[in-house]
Design goal:
By secondary structure, this protein is mainly α. The protein is built from 19 helices and two strands.
């Protein structure tokens, strides 16, 4: 028990240190009431609508962002728990901390090397998923990414079925990334796929049934989203390569090593899974760097493969990748915009500005 306590304490300490390094190097933008009140700023534009969903999860309006109409799990849970708007809007950052903690634990489980674990945590903390969770309001991406990690690495079928039941209600990107996660799971376990058919199918059934019923009732969100995307394809397709790069930057070495391992085992399935994931996000989303996070389980699996291939040198390679991620420039790529992520550590201490911004959101939601 003492050894387990020490292990978990070390994982927690490494996670916190990696987060602090990331926040100092890539400080989230300062939130002010003026910024929050500007609907043109993508980092905050959905916060007021999510606050309205928190107070009434069934709220619908023509001007409501299409992406929020079916991401009902966070506001429903927040409403059931009676959370205030400011507390609710801090949950994405808490989810990011949990995501990094789980990632760190998975790295430790295989490598058993604390330097390798530390550098993996830094790579994860300097990726787009962490930047979005800490720098944007009302983005619960960390929770669907946690569900994807569970599908790829959990052992119990019941857990996987539950995660499949919850994940899509946080973000439909869960469905687009699910084939890659199942492939990671199958290859990691020696090609065992059939044991996942029923847990995954039963878990997804409620969400797919609801969305299918909505389509039959001519619910307009999907069609409206596709029309909006179609109007912008010519603009944002030129940003795809930069956007995907900004998802992981040097961490792509780990992601690509995982994809190569999958390719060697299951070529056709790897192609189909990537077409579903990358092609689907390209069609449905133009916040490209944010969408690249769907391959987060490959980041973890790539760490495993690296350690298996070079157990002695792995921590050094991870150290180089972590250092590169701390040195390389970062930005959010949304449509044609490139929003730089810079270092302004002094703003981290401005707690009052954050409090004022969150209260502004609460006042703006009727």
């Amino acid at each position: 028990m003492l050894a387990n306590l020490r292990c978990w304490s070390a994982i927690g300490g490494i996670t916190v240190l990696a987060i602090l390094l990331s926040l100092v190097r890539y400080t989230p933008p300062r939130l002010t009431p003026e910024v929050v009140d500007n609907p043109q700023i993508v980092q905050t534009s959905r916060a007021v609508w999510l606050a309205r969903q928190l107070r009434d999860p069934a709220v619908q309006a023509p001007e409501m962002p299409n992406a929020l109409r079916w991401r009902l799990l966070p506001p429903v849970v927040g409403h059931a728990l009676g959370l205030s708007v400011p507390v609710f809007l801090l949950l994405p950052a808490a989810g990011a901390v949990l995501l990094l903690g789980v990632t760190t634990r998975l790295a430790q489980r295989v490598t058993q090397s604390w330097p390798a674990v530390f550098f993996t945590a830094i790579i994860a903390a300097t990726s787009s998923a962490f930047f979005v969770a800490t720098g944007w309001l009302a983005q619960f991406d960390a929770f669907y990414l946690l569900a994807l990690l569970g599908v790829a690495f959990a052992e119990r079928a019941l857990v996987i079925g539950l995660l499949c039941a919850l994940g899509p209600w946080c973000d439909e990107r869960f469905l687009l990334a699910l084939p890659v996660c199942l492939l990671v799971r199958g290859v990691r376990r020696g090609g065992i796929y059939r044991d996942m058919i029923w847990p995954v199918a039963l878990g997804l059934l409620p969400y797919l049934a609801c969305r299918g019923w909505a389509v039959l009732r001519h619910e307009p969100s999907v069609a409206a989203q596709l029309r909006m995307q179609q109007e912008g394809y010519g603009r944002y397709l030129s940003q795809e390569l930069l956007g995907w790069w900004m998802g992981f930057r040097a961490g792509w070495v780990l992601v690509l090593s995982a994809l190569v391992a999958l390719w060697r085992e299951q070529r056709l399935l790897t192609i189909l899974a990537l077409v579903a994931g990358i092609g689907g996000t390209t069609l449905l989303a133009w916040d490209v760097s944010r969408s690249a996070a769907i391959l987060w389980p490959c980041l973890v699996y790539g760490t495993w493969r690296l350690h298996q291939a070079w157990p002695v040198q792995a921590w050094k390679i991870l150290g180089v990748l972590a250092l590169l991620n701390l040195l390389l420039p970062a930005c959010h790529v949304v449509d044609t915009m490139q929003i730089p992520i810079r270092s302004h550590p002094a703003t981290l201490l401005d707690v009052q500005a954050l409090r004022d911004a969150l209260e502004q959101v609460a006042r703006a939601a009727p």
